Amino acid sequence: MDRLLQMFREIWVWDSEFVIVPGWHVTPVCMSGVEVRSGASVTGTFDHPGQRTANPLPFGPDVLHVLFSATADLGFSLAAGWGLPHNVLDLWVERRNLTNNITDRQGNEIPTDLVSTCHDYGIFDTISFEEKEVNRTRIAQGFPFTGEELHHVVEYCNGDVKMTHTLFERMIGQIGDIDQALHRGRCMKGVACMEWNGVPVDLRKLEQLKRKTKAVRRSVVRDFEDEYQAGIHSWDKSGDPHFSNKGYTDWVRGMGFDEETWPFNGERASADDKLVLEPMSLLHADRLPMIEEYRQLRKFLTLAKSEFKFPIGPDGRNRSSMRPFQARSSRSQPKTSENIPNATKALRSLLAPHGAEVLMHRDWSNAEYGIAAALAHDDKRWEHYLHRDAYLVKAADYGFCDYTATKETHRTLRNKFKPVVLAGQYGQTPEGLAKVLGISVGQAKLYQEREARLYPKYQKWLAINAEDRAFDG
Q1: Where along the chain do the CATH 3.30.420.10 domains lie?
Q2: What angle do CA 191, 355, 208 make, to 5 degrees?
Q3: Residue 131 pLDDT > 90, yes or no?
Q4: DSSP string covering 110-166
Q5: Whole-model pTM?
Q6: Are 332 and 230 in contact (CB under 8 A)?
């Protein structure tokens, strides 16, 4: 805390309440805040949708803003016409960082909502879950608010500020690297802008798809079955397709898999996307492209059930929560039912620039490998990131190819080692490596020992960051 007080002239803890409008910007209702050093407080209320008021908070570079789940409050700030503060510390993100990939003593994931987090830090003078739900329900109903209702909403907001303030004082000592925490706060500012801007949608094409959902659903399933003779679906008298567990399991076995090489749930082959279909599609991309085709088909059919009800604003743009830092790898995980860019690839054609806009789709190459190499200050791995393919470097390290291999010459091998590289950064065991590569556990141990000798700086950094952290909540 002392360092933050030295770094910043003022530190404001604040919270906001707003009406969520699917596909559009939030509608501000009220905000309140308290300054840590002086104890000064501010409150702001809005009488009607679209109202603009003067910003009661300083947003300059010498002021820190402490929030809990910052994208929500930053969206409020943008909607109020205030812009964004220069410095942000998001206690929700820090909670995620401190509890990521660990469980409590009962083996349950650590909850990250404000009330549960406060309880874990010994703060019990909190709003009850029931009271929170009552207030959220009323706020969601929107304007107009009576004077008494607005008073209750402001008091509710003040309660969240009080909890966040106390949590800040107790949590700050656990945040090991303040500079990294502030960087994560800057990331949340970027995410808030992404949620504010959304992506442009071809509304005519989307409406056409909605009108013809059943016909499109029948067509894409029929095309898949005709091409691959999978037998995964059966057909009713109306010509509508239905998933068959037996057909799916027979299809998996027909590709040469069994209980040893493909996860099963009892007698049925698993169709879990993240745990099974996605890694299997990567491992067998060249030999069995139908796995990825079926994976995309399943995602499409899931969206078809919801009739493609993506949240679209009045300006024809798709907006949704990006759900930053949700994944164990700290990636964003927007819901595929709400976020078109994260839905199945077939639906990306629904995105189209409006007017003079230009729309591009870009992805980072080997980003996690490069980030880890930089953080570990491992020059050898950094050179690999800059000048080679990280996945094939791993294959070469293990003796599966030489270091001249490229994506064009060794595509199948690259796909096989992609999950190996990613899993290796998150503590993959020799047993897990053995299963992915189809080798013995003893051989997997030898490979990992060889890698440790090749990259001592990286291994030291990995060991430090992979240490188990006991959670006392």
Answers
A1: 2-197
A2: 85
A3: no
A4: PP-SHHHHHHHTT------HHHHHHHHHHHHH-S---HHHHHHHHHHHHHHHHHHHH
A5: 0.81
A6: no
